[in-house]
Amino acid sequence: MSKEIDIDNLKKFWKEQPASDNHYSKEQLLQMINKKSGNNMKSIIIISSIEFILLMISLIFTCIDNTYLIGSLDMEAKEIYSRNLQISRQLLLFDILISLLFIYFFVKTYRQINILNSVKELINSILRFRRYVTGFIVINIILGMFTLFLTGFYDFVYSLKRTFGVIQNDNIETQTIHSPVNSPEYTFWFIIICIIIFIIMFIYYAVIYGIFLRKLQNNLKELREIE
Question: Which residue, of 101, 115, 130, 139, is most buried by count of CB atoms within 10 Å of its CB?
Fold first, then answer.
């Protein structure tokens, strides 16, 4: 199994050698850092592409027959849910388009660094890529939470009532779900769940994307040292 090249040791070795006896030139070090940066970018592209597929699946699910839920809502809740469902579909579609645009920028930057021979250009490319990733994360969290808040309340209440046996038959009185304003207890617990989901999403992006963003940050430090 081949070991990952230790850039720090290579830089130290390169600096300690006489000019005429350098085994690794500045250009060679640049190529090595370039390759490491490309691998980190590639990993982010793969992860974001998987998320894009999941968004597509989510959009499909919003179009699936949901008469089981509609039938359990009172008139006010039904009107609110129908309106919010349309908005959430539009937000999901917008999120899909935005994600596709960001993935395009990711791929474009990734392909550009393969032909860069300048330390300054590579630094600028990595900085630009990190800004794209930050924007991608912020937009996904905001749109994801907003979409959940629009329609998730009714799914939450329906699932809760079904789980605890409140909804067991076709009797409207036993299965009626009211709007959030008229359901303060359910609304409170739904808000708590939304906060928990937000924390989970934040941790997910901080850990998964943070790993590769930190590696790119290290690549920047290495580039600035040999600049």
Answer: 130
